[in-house]
Design goal:
This protein is mostly helical. Helix content is 75%, strand content 0%. The chain has a domain of 276 residues. The longest helix has 34 residues.
């Protein structure tokens, strides 16, 4: 056995060890770190180097956006901003065919421009949306599937934590990535809306407003005006964040801090919902979520160093390019790899493992790295609703108290629609690049 292992390069052994540890149920971050340390031992590097490599991997200015965007999303969920947004969109479009299904889709996509994190979006707005959809006649499983899918595209709709990480790894403009993701994000939302006419809806219950009371009365325009005024500062959140980035007032990294300060100001000055206890809980939740992401980033940097030293990038990318002379075939293979990887690993891990291998292929074939980044995000968003490790499904199951199997069944129509949308983003790169070129990116 030892002779057989000796014939396998240390880098390949590291990859195999990583998947073995994952199969044994070891958390992703520790699977990355332990497999990387094992490879370092094989090639004779001292473990004292590990600390410096980890520190260098996370000491990147752009990564500061991650904890602050997570904190901003947590604050906006706890300060009543989400509830006011739901009320506004219910008044605005709740009377359309599809009712709360349309509202749920729009709110999920809009919240993506606030949170930037799929699981965080499910936790923040899921309880209100799922219960309101159920009251409107949708099955609980279908409602959970819609919210899990819509929240998954939070990593596509800017500002996106996933796009920040991609920009850091691929050394691509984060601002351009944010601009490029706008149209594909809306397109994926349209694919979700296309599913609603096929949903089986019951009669619903008479007291829809029992879940989230509608305090507005009068004509449609009266109700719309009052709900807009009530939710105005929350609705301005993406305008402030994205407007500041695209106008050059602040960078995407600085925007995360602006979003946090803005959420605190809205909760304190506009809505009066900011309390010491609520602030503590938001800080605690954001710290826990950020720690998980940053641990993966830290150990992935160690893993990536071994990948570079062992030249896995060169050997694996060469093998990928050797599969076919047709770039479309290579793109299909890459997309299948990403979809399968997304079934078992979170988006951050997939990016740190795959991008060092895929990016040389992207450059070699002349693909636009901005378009590829958006395509990658759509792939990984679909992974968030794909068993067995679709984390959004687990969060939605926890919110609804349904089994993961029922939630996955409810999400199946949206999964199929998302796959069709993925093909559209892949086939029509201009969908991603039109606004970038229009704005001179």
């Amino acid at each position: 056995m030892s002779d057989l292992l000796a014939q396998i390069p240390a880098g390949t052994q590291m990859v195999l060890a990583f998947f073995l540890l994952m199969a044994l149920g070891v958390p992703v971050a520790f699977s990355l770190g332990l497999s990387a340390l094992y490879a370092m031992w094989l090639i004779g590097f001292g473990f004292d180097l590990a600390g410096d490599l980890i520190a260098a991997g996370i000491a990147k200015y752009s990564l500061l956006a991650i904890p602050f965007f997570i904190l901003a999303g947590s604050l906006m969920g706890s300060l009543g901003i989400a509830e006011r947004m739901i009320r506004f969109f219910r008044v605005l479009i709740g009377s359309l065919p599809g009712g709360m299904g349309v509202v749920g889709t729009v709110v999920c996509l809009f919240w993506g421009a606030v949170s930037g994190s799929g699981p965080a979006s499910v936790a923040a707005i899921g309880p209100m949306l799922i219960r309101a959809m159920e009251e409107d006649g949708y099955s609980r499983a279908f409602a959970a599937g819609l919210v899990a899918t819509g929240a998954a595209f939070s990593i596509v709709i800017p500002p996106s934590i996933g796009l920040v990480i991609y920009g850091v790894i691929a050394e691509t403009s984060i601002s351009d990535l944010f601009i490029a993701a706008i149209i594909p994000g809306i397109f994926m939302g349209a694919m979700m809306l296309a599913v609603l006419p096929f949903a089986r809806r019951g009669q619903g219950r008479a007291a829809l407003d029992r879940i989230s009371p509608d305090p507005y009365a009068g004509t449609y325009l009266d109700r719309l005006g009052r709900s807009f005024i009530d939710s105005f500062w929350g609705l301005m959140t993406p305008v402030v964040i994205l407007g500041g980035i695209y106008s050059g007032v602040f960078t995407p990294t600085e925007a995360a801090l602006v979003a946090t300060v803005y959420a605190l100001a809205v909760g304190w000055l506009a809505y009066g919902t900011l309390t010491v206890r609520g602030l503590y809980e938001s800080l605690s939740d954001a710290a826990a979520s950020s720690a998980v992401v940053m641990m993966v980033v830290a150990y992935a940097s160690l893993f990536g160093w071994v990948v570079t030293v062992e030249d896995l990038v060169g050997s694996y990318s060469t093998a990928l390019l050797g599969l076919s002379d047709n770039s479309a075939v290579i793109l299909i293979v890459i997309m299948l790899i990403l979809l399968i990887a997304g079934m078992f690993m979170d988006a951050v891990t997939v990016m740190f493992i795959s991008l060092p291998i895929f990016m040389p292929v992207v450059h070699q074939l002349g693909w636009d790295p901005v378009w590829f980044g958006v395509l990658l995000m759509v792939n990984l968003a679909i992974g968030l609703i794909t068993p067995p490790v679709g984390i959004n499904l687990y969060v939605a199951a926890n919110v609804t108290k349904l089994s993961i199997e029922k939630v996955a069944k409810g999400a199946l129509p949206f999964l199929l629609a998302s796959l069709v949308g993925l093909i559209g983003v892949a086939v029509f790169p201009e969908m991603s690049l039109f606004l970038v070129r229009l704005m001179g990116g």
